[in-house]
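Researcher: Last one for today. Full complex below.
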Amino acid sequence: MDLKFSIKEEEFRAEVRGFLDEKLPERLSEKVRLGQGLTKAEMEEWHAILNHRGWLAGNWPAQYGGAEWNAVQRHIFEEETTSAHAPRIVPFGLAMLGPVLQAFGSDAQKAHYLPRILNGDDWWCQGYSEPGAGSDLASLKTRAVREADHYIVNGQKTWTTLGQYANMIFCLVRTDTECKPQAGISFLLIDMKTPGITVRPIRLLDGSIEVNEVFFDDVKVPVENLVGEENKGWTYAKFLLTHERTNIAGVGFSNAALVALKQVARLQMSGGKPMIENPHFAARIARVEIDLMAMATTNLRVISAAARGQAPGAESSMLKVKGTVIRQEINDLTRRVMGPYAVPFTSEALEEGDNREPVGPQQAATAAPQYFNNRKLSIFGGSNEIQRTIITKAILQL
Amino acid sequence: MDFNLTEERQMLQDSLRRFLGDKYNTENRNGFIASERGFSPDVWHELAELGMIGALFDAADGGFGGAGFDLAVLFEELGRAGAVDPLLETGVLAGGLLAALGNGVQKTLLGEVIAGSVQLALAHGEPAARYDLNFVETSAQESGDGWVLNGHKAVVLNGGAANKLIVSARSSGAVGGDDGISLFLVDAKSAGIERRSYGTLTGGHSADIRFNDCKLPADALLGQAGGALPALETAHARAILAICAEALGAMETAKDLTIEYLKTRQQFGRPIGKFQVLQHRMADVLIEIEQARSAVINAAGHLEDGDRDLHISAAKNLIGRVGRQVAEEAIQLHGGIGMTQEYDLAHFAKRIVLIDHLFGDTDHHLERFIALGAA
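Model: Here's the assembly. Have a good evening.
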């Protein structure tokens, strides 16, 4: 047992920290700190800065232009970038599709798409969920019918995150209806500019536009855009989900949010005293901090095992549940600490480039919207209820 | 970073698990609890022969362990087996203070402790002290070339079986002050000591002990007069780590019993573990036990550094919360059988819950965590 990072790992941390000091534009980190939305151009700007350093794809092998970090290095990078309020890396091309193409894509697909992901030539989005296929993803109905050297795709995807910016979408489509649902799914890469695709934004309860509906009406997709084998898409999707679940605990985000919460709680007054001295409120902060301290170590235990080549099993589901519950609790306290100033809704404060004087404390405008927005955490990526079922299935084996 | 046990600790864990697995089942344990001392002297001597008491002490004190992870490994196994042997009381608390403060002559007693031939108890808590370590009303007055003790010590763990007591008393300063607390090494049968011994819900015999003009020689003083609080704090930090690890082990067993029950108990024509409402409650129990494990690791890993108290209070608070959830859910998911004394779960559920009553409960340690964070 040794809770300390190695000297090499600490050197890596210092390197990351030095890089962030020098290269992370304050213009971006300030928006992240205040919980404001970033424009597409700002996200691309940060990707380009990381790519220039060779750090955009920490999880990719070096042969594809990745940094080939192990789980501990990726964790350190995550810790440093979140505490510096760096924008988060948009995961769809880098964390999700990249590893799938590397494992199952053709040589031509790898040669074409991987560099374009790194260079920011393509913005990918994920076409998984459908109106009738959420937790029961395998029941998806979007149909792809082979006609000569094309598939003709018809159907609808939904909850497509940042699909409004994307020029490419990776989709799960049904290519066989005569078998059990999982066995008739294929993994297709589709150009969003193909005729027959319509994107319709969905406004979320916090006022943001983050997710979309994507409609497919006789969309022609060349067969070379099929990844791997026809009807094996479910296997690739499951592989992808394991990648989606790395760093699922969100320790870095929670730590940063907790630091921000305490700062605000020192400034917000109640009965002539800062909220952080209010015994009830201090107790709530302390409880979630204690939970977070323990979960950070649970996370390190899983990461350390992963760095030694052990595959996480039900542990990643445990981290998902606990990690999201903790983050949502911090969001709840951050909303609560604002008192009446959580009520005003100034949508412009959430958008880029708003220089008007805020209503109330600086972070007040984003506190409630962020609380509402992060209710998604326990729903997406396999809802917490699905995770609990996975956890018990693995142990009860009934 | 490495979360694996060293080879030595792995061996310690394996041999202790085997030994306790052999000695303990519900019938045996209930027998030990009902016996004269509330534990088995035979098991105690065998534990000593196996080196388990020595594992609590540093090499300089005649042991071969004593570090945070030694305590964590050992007590997790005690908890897993539902052992009722007083390693905490004789070894960690009183033994730890003897090792920390004793002079050469006093420390000869450590050899007997490690050999298993003596039982100790720390007589510190008082009726009005609750969980505050600096609240000491019992007085120690200098008299000639010795001391006279007067006062009342409450719920002295292992106080029934102890041959020797380490007694805290105020030799100066106001009640509740950090300075002025002294420790004395006292024969439990000394004149002026009135001991009322009783069983507990989870084994061993505790005692309320009254000191009525109890006269002690000068060499009964352990360490410096008036300066015992830091050593008491350290001994309690180690004891808290130990019982947190014990609670973790007990939770593991409660969890295992519950999983087995969910798989075998049939209702409505199927194992009750098929019902999702029970599955999800079990999933939460599993998640929280991993939280508890991490809290114990944090406490053990920081036992010797400046963040000790923060991690100790964090662990004690979390273990208290999680422990209650695990114990209550284990009983609830078992249904009626979980209510019975003769079923295996009973002891574990009680021990997990009552550990919250030792050395500060969830509320006490939450307040302490807040105070430490604000300081």
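Residues 229-264 of chain B form the longest helix (36 residues). DSSP finds eleven helices and ten strands in chain B.
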